[in-house]
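Could someone model P-hydroxybenzoic acid with this protein?
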Amino acid sequence: MDFAKGISRRSILQAGAIAAVGASGFVPTRFAIGNTAKVKIGFLLPYSGTYAALGEAITNGFKLAIEERGAKLGGRDIQYVAVDSEANPAKGPENTNKLVTGENVDFLVGPVHSGVALGMVKIVRETGTITIIPNAGAGAATGPLCAPNIFRTSFTNWQAAYPMGKVAMERGLKNVVTMSWKYAAGEEALAGFEANFTKNGGKVVKQILVPFPSDEFQANLTEIASLKPDGVFVFFAGAGALKFVKDYAAAGLKSIPLMGPGFLTDGVLKAQGEAAEGILTTLHYADALDIPENKTFRAAYAKAFAKEADVYAVQGYDAAQLMVQGMTAVKGDATARDALIGAMEKAVIKSPRGTFTLSKAHNPIQDFYLRQVRNGQEVVLGVAEKALADPATGCKMG
Ligand code: PHB
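Reply:
Sure, complex below.
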């Protein structure tokens, strides 16, 4: 029987303390035998729906980093438990509880979808579960809802979109239509772009929001054609991004420059083919980054999974790197919370995207690259914003 199942963390602690003074022959799982029990990691990620490929890439990237580091955390073996979030915000709290309370995980890794993140964050703020967000960009998670136990190895939606506001104006695109799914990620991305764009003199002539995860874009594309803007800025990702880019080209809109956070093409560029030519994006990663960490990572990922790595794989890889640095510092004792959190806060992550550190709100401070699809390749044109930190408005911590 698993001693740790079905009882609270506090009672495990007490039982451990009693056993440690040698009161009985019964050995509780976690403490009396040191750190030999497995570290339990819960993945709350989409393995179905429009973001399924993102969940898979994050999982792969995470496991690759762990395997490369001896398949242990602070000397302890690892047990993974995965729950399919379905990128469904309505099921966010229930799915979080399955891992946090039901499985009593030591670490939670997830989610992809900002709506799921908002429900998850409210729970882990209460339980104190050490959580690493490997994608969802919801500003609140490292803003008003920030907490010592919540970390992110990805981006905020603001961060990934803000740099393009200036780039668009530099390119003379003064009247722009913005479009996305109507939920936190899309709305925050469009707001981030618009803030920088209008500051530089641009005008958003129309904002179009469609329900998530709808991929019926025809009517909206007809409207865009009639508005004749200088450019179009969109947030779409996963299967929806693949479909949008194809539909945009098929609607004959290729003469209007298409822009967005790099999720528009990352992981789906090959499948988009010709339709993606010329798309201009900003992102904290690019396949072609010419740094040793990226080359080694991409080769190892391709070998392990027979697939090309993308930004999601990188974010999963770095979530594991962050966890490794924390657990190494406490020699595998995940109950040494203050030391564990302290080590994670100070982590320097040698990422395939370039080395980064975390802000006080636990969000990466990182470069955002300007990228353009040319001849089927994601070409890095330069750095659009160097060492960009999210303003973390409303975060009261540290
Ligand atoms: C989000 O919901 O925060 C989100 C989802 C997919 C992305 C980026 C952000 O590619």
